[in-house]
Write a structure and sequence with these properties.
Largest sheet: 4 strands, parallel
Number of helices: 13
Distance between the termini: 87 Å
Shape: elongated
CATH topology of the domain at 11-114: Cobalt-precorrin-4 Transmethylase, domain 1
Number of strands: 4
CATH architecture of the domain at 11-114: 3-Layer(aba) Sandwich
Length: 327
């Protein structure tokens, strides 16, 4: 801090920080400003940065005065830093704007300096905090269990698929959020298990380890030039992880029939197994015929479930057209 200051109207710097970043992790320009400013004020007496400023030898003068008071502090060319509160500085900036608009004051320079930037994915921290509060306070959410939410997870996945196939990006973003909600909700419920608790960090940590292990061509010494090479590596590393005795293990049998048939056929084909398809035994053996069609589609790189839904939608339009009276 200095007692003498250059002439001029001075400047007011609003220093913003993010609650998603540890308060001591400020940018170098922010620390330089804090150590050379003539006055440092905090709009919030409980600002999380205060203990770190004290440790660094930066004196905080206390609660910031209003707009007129800050103009007086800047007189003589002083630099005044205001640590912005969690809800921003709308009231302060409004006061300063009113003073500037009056034409009766020589205004200092007004600057905004972000002291900390959110990393990609930082809003996930907000999601975890909101979910934690909802779980603790909401009469409905606080009593739900994994089984209670199972059907909702299935519904949200179908709605996500619908948004993807419709090409609706607004719906896609919303449905991705709904699916993410299911993940965070289940992870929050799992924290309370008395015998085997885990939380969203355990879920994310396990996923990171899995992705790294199953991409040895990126994080290891393996090589993969084509998507098929990657698929083979994925299946091999997955089999090593699970130590499965059959390629059919891990296939959920409760999924839609066509998807199940294609998955089984794909596993057999990738493994090079000569597993013959069941032969139709009569004109009413539709299952065998559908299985054969699903296997044929999978081998051709077509998802039969998606193909059937696309055709079914077109058929729906045909039905609607037939329902419309012709003039």
């Amino acid at each position: 801090m200095t007692d003498s200051a250059p002439a001029g109207p001075g400047r007011i710097v609003l220093l913003t920080t993010s609650h998603r970043v540890a308060p001591g992790l400020l940018s170098w320009p922010a620390w330089q400003l804090l150590r050379t400013a003539d006055r440092v004020y905090a709009r919030d007496g409980g600002h999380p940065l205060l203990p770190y400023l004290k440790e660094a030898g930066v004196t905080v003068a206390g609660a910031a005065p209003g707009g007129a008071g800050l103009l007086e502090e800047c007189a003589g060319g002083r630099t005044v830093v205001v640590l912005a509160g969690a809800d921003g500085e709308g009231r302060l900036t409004d006061e300063l704007a009113a003073l500037a608009g009056s034409g009766r004051h020589t205004m200092p320079a007004l600057e905004l300096l972000p002291g900390a930037y959110d990393l990609p994915g930082a809003r996930l921290l907000d999601l975890v905090q909101v979910m934690d509060r909802i779980r603790g306070e909401c009469p409905w959410s606080s009593t739900r269990g994994h089984r209670d939410l199972a059907k909702h997870g299935l519904e949200e996945m179908y709605e996500l698929v619908e948004a993807i196939e419709a090409g609706d990006r607004t719906e896609l973003r919303e449905e991705l959020g709904d699916v993410l909600l299911q993940v965070v909700f289940h992870a929050r419920i799992a924290q309370e298990d008395a015998e085997e608790p885990f939380d969203v960090d355990d879920v994310a940590g396990g996923l990171v380890a899995k992705l790294v292990h199953r991409h040895p061509h990126i994080f290891g010494d393996e090589h993969a030039e084509t998507p098929e090479d990657v698929r083979k590596l994925w299946l091999r590393t997955k089999a090593e992880e699970k130590r499965r005795e059959s390629v059919t293990e891990g296939i959920p049998l409760s999924q839609p029939g066509l998807a199940l048939a294609a998955k089984l056929a794909g596993r057999a084909r990738t493994a090079g197994l000569a597993a013959e398809l069941p032969a139709p035994t009569g004109p009413e053996d539709f299952g065998a015929r559908l299985l054969a069609l699903a296997a044929e589609a999978e081998a051709a790189g077509v998802d039969p479930e998606t193909a059937l839904r696309t055709t079914a939608r077109a058929y729906r339009d045909t039905i609607r057209a037939a329902e419309t009276p012709t003039s």
